[in-house]
Amino acid sequence: MSENKERYYETLEASSIGWHEGKHDAWHLINYLLYILKQSYKIFEERAESVASPRGEKTAMIESAIANLPDEFRIAELRKLVPGASLDMIRKVLRDKKKQDLITPSGRGQNASWKKN
In which band, very low, low, confident or very high, does the pLDDT at 11 lie, cut at 50, 70 and 90? Predict the structure, then answer.
């Protein structure tokens, strides 16, 4: 964040003009701090995305989510429980479970539901 050092001092100066008269505007500094938080979060998000999950972890998370759902569920409900898993990954796990005769689809497409056997 050292690249923001100059901007910090400019913002600090702008927000303290009129300080002694009680006419200063703290929003300059507040907006700067919010900007810094936003930039920091973006950096954090990029770094968190670059950390790979161990192989098979998402499959286990999806299977665990299925076990915690009611006997009949939809893919949308499953996606809410496992937001880090792609739709393709969820479908793959559902196909595998179908092959094992652990679940049965009812309907097709977006309105399809799945029932545990």
Answer: very high
pLDDT band at residue 53 under the 50/70/90 scheme: low
Name the DSSP letter for residue 97: H
In this structure, the answer to whether residues 76 and 42 fall within a common structural domain is no
Q: And the tokens for 19?
A: 């300080």
DSSP β-bridge partners for residue 104: 115
Q: Is 61 helix (H, G, I), strand (E, B) or coil?
A: helix
The rounded distance, in Å, linking the Cα atoms of 86 and 5 is 40
In the chain, the number of structural domains is: 2
At position 90, the amino acid (one-letter code) is I
Whether this prediction's pTM lies above 0.70 is answered by no
Range of the domain at 29: 2-50
Considering the domain architecture, whether residues 69 and 109 belong to the same structural domain is answered as: yes
Q: Which residues contact 76 (CB under 8 A, 6 or more apart)?
A: none
pLDDT band at residue 52 using 50, 70 and 90 as cut-offs: low
